[in-house]
Amino acid sequence: MSAPLFEKIALVGIGLIGSSLARVIRREGLTSHIAIATRSPETLKRAEELGLGDSYSTGAAEAVKDADLVIVSVPVGSSGAVAEEIAPALKPGAILTDVGSTKGSVIAQMKPHLPEGVHFIPGHPLAGTEKSGPDAGFAELFENRWCILTPLPGTDPEAQEKLSEFWRRCGSNIDTMDPEHHDMVLAIVSHLPHIIAYNIVGTADDLATVTKSEVIKYSASGFRDFTRIAASDPTMWRDVCLHNKDAILEMLARFSEDLASLQRAIRWGDGEKLFDLFTRTRAIRRSIIEAGQEIDAPDFGRQVVAHPEKLAKG
Ligand code: NAP
Q1: Residue range 225-234: mean pLDDT, rounded
Q2: Residue 79 alpha carbon to ligand 1 centre in Å
Q3: Whole-angstrom distance, CA of residue 224 vs CA of residue 128
Q4: For residue 2, what pLDDT is reported?
Q5: Fewest beta carbons less than 10 Å away: which of 11, 105, 246, 310?
Q6: Which of 101, 148, 167 gets mutated to test ligand 1 (max ligand atoms within 8 A of its CB)?
Q7: Per-domain residue ranges for the chain?
Q8: Does the predicted model carry a pTM greater than 0.85?
Q9: What kind of fold does domain 6-177 have according to CATH?
Q10: Does 6-177 match 181-313 in CATH topology?
Q11: pLDDT tens per residue across span 42-69
């Protein structure tokens, strides 16, 4: 265990990401006080039962008082309302960050509410599962995963380094990029795959010629891998779609064009074209495994080897 980095850390939102943070913060001794806030008394009670923090509140403003690090882990569509609520209670000099899956929209929602003297450094850990809530979290979630920071112009380098050190101690590797670039990259590596999975599972569900029991019985043929991703939290993904609209629509347009070309190759029996594409995509899979970002099993990067019991539920 290392010396505490912060005297008090406030976690606003204690679902999968917030509760994983609480667990790793505790394990690594990154603070002497974890203050937890969530909007519903039920979730708060569960967080307390799990012993995730040192103080608990349904009021985010109360939790962030005197905190030197505040991490907002709520669906991206709620970031503005949370920023408005906590702004008057933020300590001057505090670092404020978030974990939202979209960055341009979160910045646009939060920044206007924030007082001078608070270091707002948006972030996004590229780590997750399809589960939600405080029970779903685990301390190893961020290990060997990327955390992208999207600092705004004029960000204090010392505050940025302190936040980077925080994420490194949580096990992550740090990258920085501008928010627009983040949103474009994530649209292709995360948002589009989720939309495709939601769509394919929806299509199978609507099919009249293939029964639901057949879909389930023969799911290991490929469908199953899509169902895991399509089981992701509906609120979170509704918000991601609505709050990264432009980048997602651009990627969807390219995807649809490429799909039409694939459709044409199948229609005209262009085996060479199909073979070439499938060979190229196989190489991408190999480079992901070589980069240590996946094990050699089809599960959309969701498998957590350190926690086999979590897999059993999925
Ligand atoms: P989660 O498990 O569903 O937890 C969401 C938390 O936010 C709960 O504490 C919930 O409070 C609170 N919340 C929900 N709606 C709210 C609202 N309208 N106002 C205030 N608080 C609200 O979600 P999560 O998976 O931890 O995701 C949190 C954030 O992390 C999202 O922005 C998501 O984009 C980002 N993220 C997720 C993943 C992933 O794979 N899950 C990965 C990286 C980043 P109550 O339960 O009390 O209502």
Answers
A1: 94
A2: 10
A3: 18
A4: 67
A5: 246
A6: 101
A7: 6-177, 181-313
A8: yes
A9: Rossmann fold (3.40.50)
A10: no
A11: 999 999 999 999 999 999 999 999 999 9
Atom of ligand 1 nearest to the CA of 12: 9
- Give the residue from 141, 122, 103 showing the smallest Cα distance to 15: 141
Task: Name residues contacting ligand 1 (CB within 6 A).
Answer: 13-18, 38-40, 43, 73-76, 78, 82, 99-101, 124-125, 128, 132-133, 233, 236, 240
Is pLDDT above 90 for 98? yes
43: enclosing H helix or E strand: helix 41-49
Phi/psi at 125 (5° precision): -75, 125
What is 181-313's CATH number, 1.10.3660.10, 3.40.50.10860, 3.40.50.360, 2.40.340.10? 1.10.3660.10
How many angstroms does the Cα of residue 28 sit away from the middle of ligand 1? 23
Question: Which residue puts its alpha carbon closest to atom 39 of ligand 1?
Answer: 128
| Residue pointed to by tokens 């040192």 | 54
Q: What does the DSSP 8-state code read for residue 177? A: -
pLDDT of residue 307 exceeding 70: no
Candidate of 39, 232, 242 to mutate for ligand 1, largest count of ligand atoms within 8 Å of Cβ: 39
Residue 163 has pLDDT above 80, yes or no: yes
Binned at pLDDT 50, 70 and 90, residue 309 comes out as very low
Single-letter residue type at 310: K
* 3 state DSSP class of 7: strand
Q: Provide the 3-class DSSP secondary structure of residue 34.
A: strand
Residue 137's pLDDT is 98
pLDDT at 305: 43
Nearest Cα residue to atom 40 of ligand 1:
128
Residue 144 CB neighbours (<10 A): 11
More confident: 307 or 153: 153
Which ligand 1 atom is at minimum distance from the Cα of 44? 47
Mean pLDDT of 109-115: 98
* CA 73 / ligand 1 centre spacing (Å): 5
How far does residue 100's CA lie from ligand 1's centre (Å)? 9
